[in-house]
Amino acid sequence: MPAISKDKASEHHDVAVIGAGLSGLAAALRLAMFGKKVILLEKHYVVGGLNSFYAKKGVKFDVGLHALTNYPSPQSGKSSPLLKLCRQLRISLDSLNLLPQSHSRITFGSENLLFNNNFDFFLSQVEDKFPKERDRFQSLLAKMESFPAYSVDAEELSTRSILKESIGDPLLSEMLLCPTCYYGSARKNDIDFPTFIMLFDAIFRQGLARPEHGIRAILGPLTKRIKELGVIRRMNCGVETIKTEGGKVSGIVLESGETITSDQVISTCGAVETEALIDPPDCSNSPTIEGKFSIMESIFVFPGVPEDFGWDETVVFFNDSETFCYDEPDGLIDLRSGVVCMPDNYGEQVRDSAQKSKLRITHPANFDRWSELEQPTYESEKNLWEERILDNGMKYLKNGKEVIDSFRSKTTFRDTFTPRTIKKYTGHANGTLYGSPQKRRDGTTAFENLFLAGTDQGYVGIVGAMLGGIAVANNQILRPG
Ligand SMILES: Cc1cc2nc3c(=O)[nH]c(=O)nc-3n(C[C@H](O)[C@H](O)[C@H](O)COP(=O)(O)OP(=O)(O)OC[C@H]3O[C@@H](n4cnc5c(N)ncnc54)[C@H](O)[C@@H]3O)c2cc1C
User: Fold this and answer.
1) Domain termination residue (choose one: 186, 207, 228)
2) Rounded average pLDDT over 238-264
3) Could you say which of 207, 229, 252 is where a domain stops?
């Protein structure tokens, strides 16, 4: 990244964007496309936030990226949110080289529902496995279609209550809740109905894909374009306080002590996190409720391809308790439910002698419990849980129990992150994945020139965060009112 002259950075800017995660990058790019003078301030030394990348011992990792949702399947036509975001940011969809999923599965005890990027296939699975629910499921789909989920005023009803009224067999309700909660709920044991609909569309109606070169395929074009359009990007540049005066932001003080000024500010670091930066503290409004949901994820690297072990699926959402429990666990982690992802099962499997693949297993985890451990205990607990996660995850994969020993012996490298890692690299309070359960869809705050974008707008995931950033840029800054 080129050095920025101090003079240029300390000029007055039209907009300061806090955070170079996906929503911040998208907002900065959209604003710069319309001639705004933008400064992008990021605490970390790499872009991407919750969906960044790193390398360890020669292996490249994406931080998140199980799946890029909203695959523009032929059925979704031009209305696909992914196509919309490519149009808004003038990014070519072809440049992402999207590889579609093979197929995925929701597994609860002995019941399985498969899905791929053809929604009719998922419908046929529901009809086969839950024949008595056929009409009720169709009515639920009609209700979802008529609900204004994508509106900023959408009412945040409880999906659990709606499913209880709409579906007769509780098992089907639980199976629908599992992937949608894991891919975007900040609520304990539930998901708000608009987010459920958006994620149902994103996962089942449209589908899952992965750019051939992972998250770098998205971050690369975004950073290239913001540079071309003159956005000032400052990395290792945490915001210490947001100074306010008379209901407006008057300046942004960096950890270095420098002050930045701008007409408007977009913060993407979260509602609770943004409130903590406000100086003087805003005592006239009640604070946003903190989110608590976090995860632990272990990644196992092995030579060859998943098919060597008979694994042809892309994502497996699993649960083994009677009702799906989606909550902060009491202990360090909850093994009763989770997600297994095989990122190498997108597109055709490529096999060459150097081929290495990954198996990623994710579980709910408790931030406080991980945070209170001394470093040596933290490391040993991580190792211990890695083994348990692997043993447990194998129960949900084809021939898992038979191949576990050979898989374990072939694993060449492992990496694990905990809620504490998420907090360290993104600053999210409690290491949350989806922020606060209280969302601000229009991005407004108590301060007239301060807006929130991304996760706490209620638009989650890679596509959601980017569309959220674009929406705030469009509706609050480029054409307000
Ligand atoms: C393990 C994991 C797996 C995931 N898998 C998927 C997936 O498969 N598919 C999917 O669609 N989504 C996935 N997600 C979710 C997705 O990554 C997020 O929803 C999305 O990236 C959120 O983007 P954001 O811009 O809203 O926030 P963030 O990514 O959190 O960006 C906020 C940025 O602000 C910066 N920041 C914070 N405080 C300050 C400060 N004081 N000063 C300056 N900068 C600051 C942070 O460093 C960060 O870069 C996953 C997330 C994780 C963690």
Assistant:
1) 207
2) 97
3) 207
CATH number of the CATH domain containing 456: 3.50.50.60
Whether the Cβ atoms of residue 415 and residue 446 lie closer than 8 Å to each other: no
pLDDT tens digit string along 407-443?
999 999 999 999 999 999 999 999 999 999 999 999 9
Cα–Cα distance measured from residue 287 to residue 282, given in angstroms and rounded to the nearest whole number: 9
Ligand 1: centre distance to CA 168 (Å) = 37
Beta carbon of 64 within 6 Å of any ligand 1 atom: yes
Question: Do 151 and 174 belong to one domain?
Answer: yes
Domain that holds residue 324: 292-425
Q: Residues of 150-173 as b/e, b for ≥16 C-beta within 10 angstroms?
A: eebebebeebbebbeebbeeebbb
Q: What is the pLDDT of residues 114-167, one digit of tens each?
A: 999 999 999 999 999 999 999 999 999 999 999 999 998 999 999 999 999 999
Instruction: Determine the atom of ligand 1 nearest the C-alpha atom of 24.
Output: 25
Same domain, 302 and 411: yes
Does residue 465 share a domain with residue 358?
no
Ligand 1 site, residue 458, Cβ cutoff 6 A: no
Q: Is residue 73 part of a domain?
A: no
Say what the pLDDT of residue 1 is: 39
- Strand duo 356-365 + 337-341: pairing: antiparallel
